[in-house]
Amino acid sequence: xxxxxxxxxxDLIKSRRLSDLELDKTRRALCAAAAEVNEWQPGAVLGxxxxxxxxxxxxxxxxxxxxxxxxxYMRAFLLESGLSDTRIVIGLGAAEKVYPKRISLxxxxxxxxxxxxxDNLTRYTKMSIALSAHCEDLAAWLPVVAQLCDVLIGxxxxxxxxxIRLALAPSEPTHDEIAQSINPKVSKxxxxxxxxxxxxxxxxxxxxxxxxxxxxxxxxP
Length: 221
Hints:
Layout lengths: L2 E10 L7 H21 L4 E8 L3 E6 L5 H15 L4 E10 L13 H11 L7 E4 L6 H17 L4 H10 L7 H7 L6 H10 L2 H13 L2 H5 L2
Helix pairs in contact: 1-2, 2-5, 5-7, 6-7
């Protein structure tokens, strides 16, 4: 068995409505988001998001614990841009053969779970988490958890997406630090109000619990 990893597979929503220039900007935004994630934790993302089939993309997260935080960050980054949104499925499992320059050509359980999970998403949700069936109850519960996260994300305004993108940093910036980092600056109270209106405290709790979980111990064969 190869390394236990997380694979994020996604596709852009309503991509046919994007011009070639907008599609290019959206792809570059995903790459920029991945680069910022690597500033949190160097090497967390292997290479860059790999694009295929026009509007689909895939990226490899080298350790599974930050996968949900990263998935939410990718969506917040796109929603802030106002260009598009993306569906995402997180596959947790082994990676066998990995091609760092063309992640979508890689093989292994995590890639299979993530890709099939995206193909099987219904029109009612934009996010899911896929595990091997031998994980039993977890394999059934985690997609539901992801759907509930998606409901929260689906209500965000572009301003809420921007503030939450900043709040998602693992360094856990204070509301005052977030306020000071925005140009033009806003008040700490405004940040607090925006985060409360976006139900950030709920989403943060889910992400923190995901990161406390030893996924390899629970899910590796």
